[in-house]
Design brief:
15-stranded mixed β-sheet, Jelly Rolls, 28% helix, Phage tail protein beta-alpha-beta fold, alpha+beta
């Protein structure tokens, strides 16, 4: 199978016969399936403006051909080479391969890494710190990250395992609150459109900071700090950290959450649009665990077992699938 045909399939330009050929090739072996998944992941991680699609595509082909000629394709795929969107003039797309500090390719000053809807994205930062981005989340950081103040801008949810470096502070900034890190493992949930913030400390020590830089709480391992702008107060409590980090293993535990908030998660993970027709239904609360790799209809059937609601799924061409939720009278 040629990578040109795979790219044609990923771009949605393959003919029915070509699509059938690609799908048959994928089903031939687990090795083929893994190779296709890696190609799909790289293509999906190429966040681009429409006017830069040709630039992204040409860069993608150039990198693929170069690595293919060096006979390092599978090694590169296994080490999760990714495309990075460069924040700069014209939204030009730059390629960064995170392998080690000695062989990084850094072309510009600021980068954004975004995890596509329905996927998680692993990233090793220049200082050796590890980040796992949840679906629809993104981070921004500067190219001199490992030499100056280590500063991350987060929108969404991510798990961090930070390399300790007392000479170079590590901070994570969000729309609502910030985190000062002392070398540790922790989870942050801070989706900008929800104006809520939650962080859970697994190991080490972190401080929660307001937007003026003032420390308002310092967490111990096993503690969670949560904040909602409408309530305007930070709540720190002892928790089971596994509940807050289980999404890394493909599990999601809802902690007595409103269905309208759960709908936002489902929209991000399954790339669908949910319309709740009943305000009363949206305020109902749910507690339970789901598997993220299950089809959307199976997930909705699970909710039906404990929630009095019905749903309607409406596929749409070139748009996210539309799903109506309604209360059963």
């Amino acid at each position: 199978m040629t990578f040109e045909l795979i790219l044609k399939y990923l771009k949605g330009e393959a003919s029915p016969e070509e699509r059938k050929a690609v799908l048959s090739w994928i089903d031939e072996s687990a090795e083929n399936k893994e190779e296709f998944t890696n190609w799909k992941r790289i293509w999906a991680l190429t966040e681009k403006a429409s006017e830069n699609e040709d630039v992204a595509y040409k860069n993608f082909l150039k990198v693929a051909e170069r690595e293919k000629q060096k006979n390092r394709f599978r090694k590169i795929m296994a080490q999760a080479a990714i495309f990075i969107l460069l924040i700069g003039l014209g939204g030009v797309i730059s390629y960064v391969y995170f392998n080690s500090a000695s062989n990084q390719e850094i072309y510009q000053a600021k980068y954004t890494v975004k995890s596509p809807l329905g996927q998680m994205t692993e990233l090793k930062l220049p200082d050796g710190s590890f980040v796992l981005l949840n679906s629809g989340s993104k981070i921004k950081y500067n190219a001199d990250f490992s030499r100056g103040q280590r500063e991350i801008f987060l929108e969404g949810e991510a798990f961090f395992d930070v390399e300790k470096d007392t000479e170079h502070p590590f901070t994570v900034k969000s729309k609502v609150l910030d985190i000062k890190v002392y070398g540790t493992s922790f989870n942050i949930e801070a989706y900008p459109n929800e104006e809520k913030f939650s962080t859970t400390l697994v190991e080490g020590s972190i401080s929660v900071m307001d937007k003026t830089g003032k420390e308002i709480a310092q967490l111990k391992p096993g503690e969670n700090a949560s904040y909602a702008k409408d309530e305007n107060r930070l709540i720190v409590q002892k928790v089971n950290t596994g509940i807050y980090t289980s999404w890394r293993e493909g599990l999601v535990t809802f902690r007595n959450e409103k269905l309208k908030d759960i709908a936002k998660f489902i929209e991000r993970w399954y790339n669908v649009e949910i319309i709740i027709r009943s305000e009363e239904l949206g305020d109902e609360r749910y507690f339970g665990t789901i598997l993220k790799n299950k089809p959307i209809d199976q997930i909705l059937e699970v909710f039906k077992l404990t929630t009095v609601f019905k749903y309607e799924i409406i596929p749409r061409a070139n748009k996210p699938t539309l799903i109506y939720w309604d209360k059963i009278n």
